[in-house]
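Fresh eyes needed here. I'd like your take on this protein's tokenised backbone:
***
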Amino acid sequence: MKLIYSNENKLLVHNVKNILEAEGIDVFIKNEFAQGAMGEVAVFDTWPELWINDESDFERASVIVEGVNRKANAADWVCNNCQEVNDASFEVCWKCQEAES
């Protein structure tokens, strides 16, 4: 088992989990419900952690997680078809379903 990702936001951890599982990588979440212990333990120790079961998947999973993080930090884009502003995580316009160009 090897730690691949951690974040204070449980939704982001679950998103990365779903992406990795869709790629056939077996993962599990530790500390999913540890936030109730905040104050008793260090804050960072309560963050949900995503662990890989098979360490041979670590390299491939690292590339995927890096891509997810890069996409999350990218700039919003404007649809060429309808001029709607879309979040960087969208590959297709939420309004008109035109693909990002």
Observations:
- The mean pLDDT is 88.
